[in-house]
Amino acid sequence: MVQRLIQPTFRDLLRRSRAVVITGPRQSGKTTLAKTVTGGNGGLGYLSLETPWVQAKYRDNEAQLFQDFPNGAVIDEVQELPSILSALQEWIDSEARDGRWVLTGSRQMDLRSGVSQSLAGRASRLELWPFSRPEVAASEKVPPTLPASVLAGGYPALFDRDRELEPTRWLENYAKDFVQRDARALLAVDSPVDFDRFVRLCAARTGQLLNVASLAESVGISAKTAEAWITVLEACYLVIRLRPFERNFGKRTVKRAKLHFVDTGLACRLLQIQDVNQLQMHPLYGALVESYCVGEVIKARLNRGQEPQAWYWRSDDGIEFDLLLAIGPDLYPFEVKATATPNPSDLSAFEKLRQRAEREPDLKLQPGTVIYGGADPVPYRQDRFVPWHSITEAVPTQP
Q1: How many helices (H) and strands (E) are present in the chain, helices listed first?
Q2: pLDDT tens digits for 327-380?
Q3: Is residue 297 in a domain?
Q4: 175 and 272 housed in the same domain
Q5: What is the widest separation between alpha-carbon atoms in the chain?
Q6: Number of compact structural domains in the chain
Q7: Global confidence as pTM
Q8: Confidence at 162, pLDDT banded by 50, 70, 90
Q9: In a domain, 291, yes or no
Q10: Could you tell me if residue 294 is inside a domain?
C-alpha cells in the first residue's frame, strides 16, 4: 500500500483536534487514509452513510450513533446526513477528547457549510487529492514519462497492484457515476445528456481562460445555469478555478479565471484520448501538461496541510505566469513547458516581472521556476528549470 504524503499532517491534527474532516474527490483515498491512520489510534469504528438503510437508522435517532461507537469512528460521506453534525457537536463537547472522530466527504459545498455551523472551533480540515507524482512513484505501476503521467492521472485505484483495472473503462464509469449521483444531489439537472456534454466541454478547456458564456452557448443553456454547473464541478473536486492574482504591477491584467481539471487522466478520457501518441499530437497537450503541473504544486501544499495560495497572472501586454504562489509577502512564479529541452528564453518573463515588482515594496519576488519535460534540474542565473517529476521538491514549504 502506498503511504500518503499527507499522513504526518493527519496524525498531528488527530492529536490536537476533536475531529478531523477530510474532503476531496471521490476515489481519492480518503477512506483508506482514515482507516490506515486511525487503526493505530485506539481502533476507531467505521460507518458509511452512503447507503439508504444506514441513513434511515440514524436519521431520527442520532444518539444511537454514539451508543454504537462510544469510542469514536470514521464516518464516510457525512454530508449525506447533515443532522449528524449537530449531534456530534454536543457529543464532542461532553467528551472533550481529541482524535476520536474523522469525517469524510466528497462534496465540499455541503460539508463546509455543515462543519462551519456545527463544528466551528472543534474540527480541523484536510483536502486529499488523487496521488501526487511521488505517491505514484511509490506504486508498482509508475508511468515513466510526462505524457504517460498526464494520461494516467492519479486516482489511487488505478495504481493498486492487487487490482487489474482497465483505465479507460474505470474513468468513464467514474464520470458517469458523478453525473448520476453527485450532480443530481447538488442540483436538479433537467438533462443529464446536456450536463455530460458540459463536463466534456470543460475538459476541452482545461488550462485555458474560462468563458462561461461561451460554454453555455456551446451546450445550449443559460449563462446562469452554466455558472451553477461549474460551481458543482468545483464542489465535487472535478475542476478548480485558478483566479488571477489581484496585483497588476502597473499594467492592466486579465481578470477571468483559468479552468483546470483536478485529474488529467479523467480529462484525457473525457476528451477520448486513448494513448500517449494521441495525447502528444493533441492540440490540448500543452494545456493538459499545465493542468497536471499546477495540480502537482497544489497537492504538494495540501499534503503538508498548507493552503495552496495559488493564482495565475497575465498582463494585457503578454507577460504571463501559469502559477503564482502568494505566501505572505513572498511571490513564487512558475511557468510550465512541455518541452524536454530547457530554453533560456522561457525565463525572460521572470526578469520583466522583477522589474515591475520593484515598485511594490510590500511584496518580495522569489526566483522563478520553469517546470519542464526534461530529466534534470538546470539552474540559470537566479532562476531554474525543474523537471516535471521533481515538482514537489520545488514547492515552498513555509505556511
Answers
A1: 18, 15
A2: 988 999 999 999 999 999 999 889 888 887 777 788 888 999 999 999 999 999
A3: no
A4: yes
A5: 66
A6: 3
A7: 0.93
A8: confident
A9: no
A10: no
